[in-house]
Amino acid sequence: MQIKDLESVEKKISRMEKMTKLGDKDAKHGLDVLHKLKSHLESFQSARTAPVSIDDRRFMDDMFLLSEKPVMYVCNVDDVSATKGNDYSARFIESVRSQDSEVLVIAAKMESEIAELDNEEDRLAFLAMRD
Is domain 2-68 annotated with CATH 1.10.150.300? Predict the structure, then answer.
């Protein structure tokens, strides 16, 4: 994703350079922002975490960068850890805390078993047995 985003940023830098040659001061500032973003992407970081102010993000908005999209991680745990997670999921959550992302902890095997049940009464009975 970063490589595709880097291509988009480089194309926009080329366009902005032409505008700065015509004396557009806002384009000069935009060019500085895009170079900062380019450097960030080249260091294998996502656009979502780029050190760009909210006001300066207007120079990025029209590129619809892939690595700027929201991210959700899913941690699959055992049935016992379904409500609070386990040591592994806790360490993972801590490792991505600085990212602008969401973490969902699920017990996929149990979810699958619940989904196979025909009606809500059976599902509730199944969950009551698990408690």
Answer: yes
Whether the full predicted model's pTM is greater than 0.85, yes or no, is: no
pLDDT band at 78 (very low <50, low <70, confident <90, very high): very high
Amino acid at 129: M
DSSP annotation string for 4-64: HHHHHHHHHHHHHHHHHHTT-HHHHHHHHHHHHHHHHHHTT--GGG----TGGGGGTGGG-
Other Cβ atoms less than 10 A from the Cβ of 106: the count is 15
Tell me where in the chain the CATH 1.10.150.300 domain(s) lie.
2-68
H or E element at residue 70? none
